[in-house]
Amino acid sequence: MWLEQSGVLRAQPPLFETLCYIRPEEEALMDYLAQQKPARAEERYDCGLDGCCKSFPHEHVGVKTAEQDGLMLKEETVLGTTDDL
Description:
The protein has about 80 residues and is mainly alpha-helical. The chain contains 4 helices and no strands.
């Protein structure tokens, strides 16, 4: 029966150290990589909305702040008064 051969029906489970063994060279590599990570300050994008913690450039639709007018489309685009042509 395949369940017996795969070890599913064992009366005693295998030792934890046998299942979750980390080789010394793997542990040394993990220690080395953990030491190499430089601590860097995370840069935040200031959208002007209090409490917003998104780190990428974005706008809030319907919220007027000092940095944005809160509109999905710029007023100049709707009225056709831009010189983007």
